[in-house]
Write a structure and sequence with these properties.
Length: 272
């Protein structure tokens, strides 16, 4: 637990690198909802310093680290080292990916109908994202960086061919970079099973218990579904998912404990 949390029951979360993080409002709304419904009393506070994901996790593992919670895609190593709240914050949307591409090149994606065809192109990813290993495990080429904003520039200047982004992220990210001549590819969905969890410090197990209790209460009374639908209910129509070619990837990093059999926890994009 962070020193701040010891003094005042504050949950310290990492300040994010992006000036506008399209996920942040939603994730914080889910976190506040979980806290409110847990029956416990916590305040939320962001860390003084901006942290990339790898540093945030390093701090999370320390007995008195700078953060108490991180939200991120799960993998086997993360679940081994930290305490996951095993309810997908985004109903698995982090694994539904559309390609951010150059506007001038949109039509060339029309003929990409297989993973093999996609492997001719280079994706861009952050170096510490699990997505990098997932894409590579499926035979896809990936160029990595430690500069998130730089990935948009790399698409624009043709250094990479596409930047796979989740349904949650891509609309706001495109709107935030109008000067770069980017577009959402209208033809593909790249999909792999994964979960976006709250991870809690292993030194504060009571917080993980409280957040799990709060999340389960929000599921039981319908407030989690209502919050999700308020933010993301129109995504199927907006991105015309039923008209896209779906490329299903395997995820070798997916832990066995992932609650895939609880169907109500997951986005059912093709059925909505």
């Amino acid at each position: 637990m962070s020193q701040a949390a010891v003094a005042a029951d504050r949950i310290v979360y990492p300040r994010h690198q992006a000036l506008h993080d399209p996920q942040l409002d939603y994730v914080l709304a889910v976190l506040r909802m979980a806290v409110d419904k847990s029956g416990a009393s916590y305040d939320l506070e962001q860390s003084p310093q901006v942290m990339v994901q790898s540093r945030a996790f390093a701090e999370l593992g320390k007995p008195h680290g700078a953060v108490d919670i991180v939200w991120a895609m799960t993998d086997i190593e993360r679940e081994r080292n930290y305490l996951p709240v095993r309810i997908p914050i985004d109903k698995g949307l982090i694994g539904w990916r559309l390609a951010l591409v150059r506007q001038a090149d949109v039509q060339r994606w029309h003929d990409v109908r297989s993973i093999s065809a996609l492997s001719a192109y280079v994706a861009g990813q952050m170096h510490d994202w699990p997505d990098t290993a997932i894409l590579r495990a499926n035979g896809l080429k990936v160029s990595t960086t430690s500069n998130y904003e730089g990935l948009f520039q790399q698409v624009a200047i043709n250094r990479i061919d596409y930047f796979p982004r989740s349904l949650i992220e891509i609309g706001d990210e495109l709107a935030s970079h109008p000067e770069l001549g980017l577009a959402v590819d209208p033809y593909l969905v790249i999909r792999y099973p994964t979960a976006f969890y709250f991870f809690v410090s292993p030194h504060w197990p009571d917080l993980a218990v409280d957040l799990t209790r709060g999340m389960e209460a929000a599921i039981a009374d319908g407030s989690f579904d209502r919050l999700f639908d308020r933010y993301f209910g129109e995504l199927t129509a907006r991105y015309r998912l039923k008209e896209r070619t779906v490329l299903n990837l395997t995820n070798p990093l997916l832990p066995a404990q992932t609650p895939l059999t609880r169907k109500g926890l997951w986005f059912q994009g093709m059925q909505r």
